[in-house]
Each structure stands twice: as C-alpha cells, then as structure tokens.
C-alpha cells in the first residue's frame, strides 16, 4: 500500500505535579466518521509507518462540539476585522471557523512544512494528511494548520490582546497518555510590510514536563532544527495555552498562522492509542 503525504486548501494541562495520573482509557471510537472495519484497516496503516513514540488514532477535535473545528473570534465592538482567505480583506468578519482533524496521528516537528511555505498568503486551512493511494477516503491527520489576517480599521493605533484557550479535553478511556501532554502549538504572528517583504516569527508552546517545573523540549529525541531542539514556552495555565499583546497602526495588517500537532518525541508519549480522546480550542482577540 503506497502512502504519500498531502496538504489540504486543546492528567490535564499545566500544573501536572498537582494532578492525579490520567484515568484509564479504552479504545478510540470514531464511528461518526469511519466504520470500525475501516478504522481497523487505518490502524494497520499507522502501525506500519510508526518510527518512534506513540501513535494516536482517535478524534482530535479542534473546537466546536468536538466536531473537528477551530474558531477565532474578535470582540464585535473592536475596531479590528479578520479575513481568512487573503490580506485584501474582501470578506471582513469577526468570526472564523477552520477545518480541524477528525482522526490524527502523531507527527515529528522536523517534518512540518517550512515557515515560508505554511505561514503565507493565501490563508485558510492548511492541514497535513497521510493518505493511502489505494484507499484515499482513509486519510489520517498529521497536523492542523490555519492562516488568517487581522486589520486595524480604526483611524488610530490599536492595542489588543490574544488568548488561545483550551476549552475542553478528555484523556480518553484506555489508560494511555494525555493528548494535552504531547500537544505542541506553534503560533506565527507577523506584521505585513508595505514593501512586500515577509517575516515568519513564531513561538512554540507545550505543557510543562511531568516534573511540573521543567519546560518541554519541542522535539527532544529526533529534532535537528534549532527551533525543535529548543525548550517550548510552557502553557500559561490549566485552560490557557498562550496570551500575547499586539499593537497595529491604522489600516495595518497582521498575519497569524497556528499549527497544532501531537509530538511523538515527548517523553510522555507512550502506550496504546488513546480512545475517545479529544481537545478543543478557541482563540479570542480583544482591544485593550
């Protein structure tokens, strides 16, 4: 069976040392999207390509009734607007909804697309999938990625905050690792230059390590790129991945790209695939 990668146009969070060990999990149920017969075949595909760590074959829902969605919201009273398609703001809005992942496996940080490939125009969902050539309907999510743009439409400079929340999560039911513990979040936030030049600055976030003190390395075993061999920024709190503040001049734009993946190099990535495990997120902007 030939496999080719393709790209398609949130125990608990921080404070692990005070948390009890995750409850026992059972086996992943994804009947809403894939019949169990197909699910078994997909599991064989995943196991056949496993290189390191654990592989997660379950629902990883990125917000919205655990339906595989990720949303971004701006306070409607703010003098800010968004566009998911491009930086021309043809379709201005204060609410965006991205395509999440119904079924996902772990994915090594070094295998992610380069910054200047994924963090660019046009925007929208840029999820990565593993697809079987013989069974294209059986695609498995490798990472979730989404690019969108924010514009200050006020006549003066506007300062605003961003909060990326973990709205809900479940460790599953079969006693394996928590998705929160092996999750990585990479957030690009860059002003759009009038001369057409692009920057791709980003920060990578991860839950604090099992000792409750030491930041996780993004990809501690196989990482070869500098950004993946470095410590990740710990989650802000139990329900918050990141909080940042920005300022935009009048009619100035910013490009945001978020990438979420499950890192098999994480020391807590072990055991069987979690069943019925999920994480849901929302990103919210507010004027300061």
Structure characterization notes:
This protein has 288 residues and is mainly β. It has one domain. The chain has four helices and 16 strands. The strands form three sheets. Strands 1, 4, 7, 8, 9, 11, 12, 13 and 15 form a nine-stranded mixed β-sheet that branches. The longest helix is centred in the N-terminal third of the chain and has 13 residues. The protein starts with a strand and ends with a strand. The N terminus is likely disordered.
Helical/strand content category: mainly beta
**Which strand-content bin applies to the residues?**
35-45%
Fraction of residues in helices? under 10%
User: How many strands, what sense, and barrel or not for the largest sheet?
Assistant: 9 strands, mixed
What is the molecular shape? globular
Number of structural units classed as domains: 1
How would you describe the oligomerization state of the chains in this entry?
Answer: single chain
Mean pLDDT: 76
- The radius of gyration computed from the alpha-carbon positions, rounded to a whole number of angstroms, is 19 Å
Total count of helical runs of at least 4 residues? 4
Q: Give start-end ranges of low-pLDDT stretches.
A: 1-68
Helices and strands, in order, run as EHEEEEEHEEEEHEEHEEEE
Question: How many strands?
Answer: 16
Distance between the termini: 54 Å
């Amino acid at each position: 069976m030939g496999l080719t990668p393709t790209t398609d146009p949130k125990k608990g969070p921080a404070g692990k040392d005070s948390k009890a060990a995750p409850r026992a999990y059972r086996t992943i149920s994804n009947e809403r999207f894939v019949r169990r017969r197909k699910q078994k075949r997909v599991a064989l595909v995943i196991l056949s390509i496993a290189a390191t760590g654990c592989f997660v074959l379950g629902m990883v829902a990125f917000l919205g009734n655990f339906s595989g969605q990720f949303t971004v919201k701006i306070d409607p009273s703010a003098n800010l607007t968004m566009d998911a398609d491009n930086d021309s703001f043809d379709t201005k809005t204060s609410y965006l909804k991205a395509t999440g992942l119904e079924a996902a496996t772990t994915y090594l940080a070094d295998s992610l697309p380069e910054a200047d490939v994924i963090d660019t125009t046009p925007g929208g969902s840029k999820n990565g999938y593993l697809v079987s050539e013989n069974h294209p309907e059986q695609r498995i999510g490798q990472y979730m990625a989404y690019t969108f743009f924010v514009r200050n439409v006020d006549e003066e400079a506007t300062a605003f905050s961003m909060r990326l929340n973990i709205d809900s999560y479940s460790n599953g039911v079969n006693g394996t690792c928590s998705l929160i513990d092996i999750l990585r979040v990479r957030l690009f936030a860059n002003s759009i230059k009038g001369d057409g030049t692009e920057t791709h600055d980003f920060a990578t976030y991860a839950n604090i390590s099992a000792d409750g003190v030491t930041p996780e390395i993004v990809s501690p075993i196989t990482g070869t790129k500098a950004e993946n061999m470095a410590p990740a920024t710990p989650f802000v709190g139990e329900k918050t991945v990141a909080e940042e503040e920005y300022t935009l001049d009048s009619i100035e734009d910013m490009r945001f790209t978020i990438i979420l993946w499950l890192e098999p190099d994480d020391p807590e990535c072990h055991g069987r695939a979690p069943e019925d495990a999920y994480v849901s997120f929302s990103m919210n902007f507010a004027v300061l």
